[in-house]
Batch of 2 targets.
Target 1
Amino acid sequence: MEVKLAESAGFCFGVTRAMNTVEEQIKNKTDRKIYTYGPIIHNSEVVNDLKKRGVESIDLPEEIPGIAGQIMVIRSHGVSREIYRIAGEHGIEVRDATCPFVKKIHRIVDEKGREGFHVIVIGDAGHPEVQGIVGWASGPVTVINSEEEAEAFGTDKSQKICVVAQTTFNAQKFQYFVEIINKKGYDTNVINTICNATAIRQKEAADISMQADKMLVIGDPKSSNTRKLYEICRSNCKDTYHIQTVKDLNNADLQSGTCVGITAGASTPNYIIQEVLLYVRGI
Ligand code: F3S
């Protein structure tokens, strides 16, 4: 059986950087406790391991006062301006591992808001990255995540619009929503902020899933970029499995395949990918 592993599978640059930031804090241990704002990555295996090594996570702004004076690592998704303010008020040592590509979007929505633009963020309003981006807007901001929401968008005809995207958004859907918005006739400035790593990963997943008759997408169910990879692969290969670790392969019928493709989300550690690879090669 042929096995095709995507070269882009696993940690992206931003996630590697965030993980290294946490590891550095553990290594340089002081008497301050280490917290992350939200799980450092969407991977419960990794988060549980960090917990055993003394790294806790908090999830809500209201929890920040309770960790006054400690260390707080901001993950690659970034956070709103408000979170920095609250952390500053409580003497928290912030270690900022916001991915530079996300930081760039924060700057755009801040500047464009000041210049009088209405900012549209194409992405999932419930995703922490999008919540962080919205939290940097200096003017009106709308999140659009569906065709219906794009169609329904409307504001004053003289209003300038700036469109950005959640870094992990599907590139084709983004273009489609932009076309819908463009037809409305506003003075629109589109800044495609989809991360290259995501586009490359999605393209490679599409290519491999077109050739494979079984496809494995490895990642935590909470990882939005993994779910998007699954959607892409499933549209090309009906036998696509979303798994978290090699243990989830028990029920997968891989024997009947002649070509198994493997990809993984940006928050999947390399050791998990290697375990799956070894298992599949052993069939
Ligand atoms: Fe950054 Fe792109 Fe990863 S935005 S966190 S390098 S997917």
Target 2
Amino acid sequence: MKALIDKLEKERALSRDEWIALIGGRSETLAQDLFRRASAVRRRCYGDEVYVRGLIEFTNCCKNDCLYCGIRRSNRSVSRYRLTEGEILACCREGYGLGYRTFVLQGGEDPAWTPQRLAALVADIKAAHPDCAVTLSVGEHSKETYQLWFDAGADRYLLRHETADDAHYRFLHPPEMSPENRKRCLWDLKEIGYQVGCGFMVGSPGQTPAQLAEDMLFIRALEPEMVGIGPFIPQRDTPFGGRPAGTLELTLFLLGLLRLMLPDVLLPATTALGTIDPRGRELGIMAGANVCMPNLSPENVREKYALYDNKLCTGAEAAQSLRSLAQRMEGIGCRVVVSRGDHRKL
Ligand code: 5AD
């Protein structure tokens, strides 16, 4: 197994069978060695810097019906909300004062937010904060729409591919969604010139090491600037509400592998990781991550963006607690910086 990690670090790629062997054959000692190397690689590219993004969950209305997701359209127990332009701009203003220089607008696929309306909002945010990056995370759209938002000033786009295995994708999604369209979106975003983030849930129902190997091969081929991974966590009102959550252990191991495969990738220690373990964020950074995305949404809507049960949105999770997050990062030899935190080509 150690030879496979050597090879990954040197060649930044493994074959399908090697990925399966490495992920399936992992151990505690192997993980410790992996994390040491991943931290060194992160340090070589980004020093001790950890980047923060202010996450604004601006609508929990969604036309999709993904089987794992708490804000799926058929979940009648969600109290739906949409922030107004004014409220979103107020979040950015507050975030700017706190030291955020990237705003992530994340939401369901909400038809009330037409492409034009969102483009106008992006332009307004960029006009108010020209030194900030805007990241969009609003799902699958046409290439023309992605281009419209890019031209309005959007810098980055997050769209998790969720799983690169076609059969597994169909298992996790309703019939009207397809793995082909998901991947098409990511390639379109790359071509337009966004800094692109893909990603997947760890331990989603039915996931096998062979499917995780597909994820690693897909990510290698796409070469995204960002990769978001976090454990699957059941949400009680969804069809997968009774399934077990993904583990901290496997998520950390995959973060380490991703850092070795893509040394300069922007890799968040996600909210889901912080939710399954109180030290999840720190452990994620020590495994190779270099980004945190605290919640900058207005207090009164935070718990309505319930993708899964017990989702963190207070304490170090709240954008307002940047000081405490910074202290936690200092505790592991890292430094939260006031910066756009753009991707750096190594
Ligand atoms: N557990 C963990 N992550 C989830 N997401 C959606 N539902 C869940 C869940 N139950 C993730 C998906 C999506 C992102 C916004 O949140 O990967 O892309």
